[in-house]
């Protein structure tokens, strides 16, 4: 019986700003081998080899595409309860190519351009960088989620856990689903200026590119972020990103998907949810949402008993590191992933669930990840996922942007999300309700939501910081487990439902902090956004059940 049923009686963002908005080293996982930490940016030889790999990306992509098409053509003979599963991880350590004039500035004094000490001369040299309106050194990397603007430079990566993009691929019944996760504050669906000119690099763009290259339905490509505030900012709210690094990261995502698909092998799935109440808590007392206390998960086991991948979701902001530390860290999700990989083998990846109103309990410096890992049941103790056919669905819509301060900042380019001067209106409500949430704006954002089923297991993806009321609603839809992923295929700020939001007249006041003026409202693009995305997701799940 699902835990949610047992406890139900006891449980009643500028576009990602503040704590809201938010070469290639390959490590494919085959045969359930444990994934090591070489190539996390601390090994010079590994970095050199990875840079060499980056120079052959095009050839590698063509080779992997051929492998994928060959696999589709022949097809592994699967048992009634088997699905093909593959996994891969790619190191995100910055690797500028000096021969092309690329450089990563790792000098604190040169990366904090404006403040009590004035403006650093090197930052002034980069003011003309058309890709970002910030006064900054555009060869620096910055953390996301601390204050506003380029204030927290990254001078190195954590040496124990590193920062990665991890991908798990599942295929059966002619459909492929890939689940990718970046150790990053956020990653946009569509970019305005920060992408390299030669190739679009947003999550929505990459999904289309994977369709063209590997034949994957774009609806089956999910690209999410951990929302670790001590990791890189890819949305532009805390400074721009060097063009060479945007190119490297986008290619790392593509390579991770290629490698995961190329390593597909027959496996069985077991899944469940585990009560983990002591590890998260509500961020504020003013929320109406219920809390989500469960770690939802599934595990893929190969024919020889090897674990290929462990995938989980949990609701808690990753804010244990950062500030003045200058060292990028994957926070509790990175600790969880490595701990599970060491214990069970294969690759592990844990996505953010209803993080909008949930924090990690206490300043645990990532140790919560190890605690959550210890709560996973032993191998074989989960519920088997029977007849795991893969089904996917995706819905796009033009979402009104009614938050005037965010609309202004976005129009000025201080958040590098592509807005469109397209009027949009929406009315959304539960079937039969006569009081819909309605909104309209002359400015809109093109975004989407994803829903998937693997047997009776549900996986959804939402384009921002969903709240736990959302995940609780979806988690009741599956008798086994639901992985309701937030910050996926976009990073459009907080997504409370309309019953959580204040009136729009007070919305801008949230920039001053929590209290009478709700902080989360300040970083929500529209009061109906959460309602629209949730009802769209439920509608897709109903269609997948037919």
What does this structure look like?
It is a single chain. The protein is of the alpha/beta class. It has a domain at 3-95 and 156-388 and 448-499. The chain has 13 helices and 26 strands. It has helices at residues 3-7, 44-54, 57-74, 108-111, 121-125, 203-214, 243-262, 331-344, 367-375, 404-412, 468-475, 519-522, 529-544; strands at residues 25-29, 83-91, 141-142, 153-154, 156-157, 164-172, 175-182, 184-187, 221-225, 232-234, 265-275, 280-282, 294-302, 307-314, 327-328, 347-352, 358-360, 383-384, 390-400, 424-428, 437-441, 444-454, 457-461, 465-466, 482-485, 494-495. Strands 1, 2, 6, 7, 9, 11, 13, 14, 16 and 18 form a 10-stranded mixed beta sheet that branches. The protein has a 4-stranded mixed beta sheet with strand order 19-22-23-25. Strand 22 (444-454) and strand 23 (457-461) form a beta hairpin. It is globular, with a radius of gyration of 22 Å. The model is unreliable at 3-27, 30-61 and 67-74 (pLDDT under 50).
Low-pLDDT ranges:
3-27, 30-61, 67-74
User: What fraction of the residues are assigned to beta strands by DSSP?
Assistant: 25-35%
Number of strand segments: 26
Gyration radius (Cα, Å) is 22 Å
Q: Helical element count?
A: 13
Q: Characterize the overall form.
A: globular
SSE class: alpha/beta
The average pLDDT value, as a whole number, equals 83
What gap, in angstroms, lies between the N and C termini? 24 Å
Major pleated sheet? 10 strands, mixed
Task: Specify the helix fraction band.
Answer: 10-25%
